[in-house]
């Protein structure tokens, strides 16, 4: 990449906005996932009987199974949120930065 183009991109306020938004969203979603995951691990460590409780009397399936499924689904949901933002807001900002740099 030409140094002049690189300088234009780095000095563009839209580029700074793009970096800030991507970083903020990435950290926010990461923290949410870590809280969910480590919350599950903490529950398992400090109250294992809770996860071993049957969903209903006489059932084999325990509370841990649907909670585990919800953890996996939350990862898909958080990934979907990031992809949606990336495909809409971030791509539009990226396109503006590229157009500004080419002028």
TrEMBL record:
Signal peptide limits: none
Membrane-spanning ranges: 25-46, 58-84
Organism superkingdom: Bacteria
Keyword DNA repair in annotation: no
Pfam families: DUF485 (PF04341)
Organism the protein comes from: Paludibacterium purpuratum
Record has Cell membrane as a keyword: no
Keywords noted in UniProt: Membrane, Transmembrane, Transmembrane helix
A Gene Ontology cellular-component term: plasma membrane
Name listed for the protein in its UniProt record: Uncharacterized membrane protein (DUF485 family)
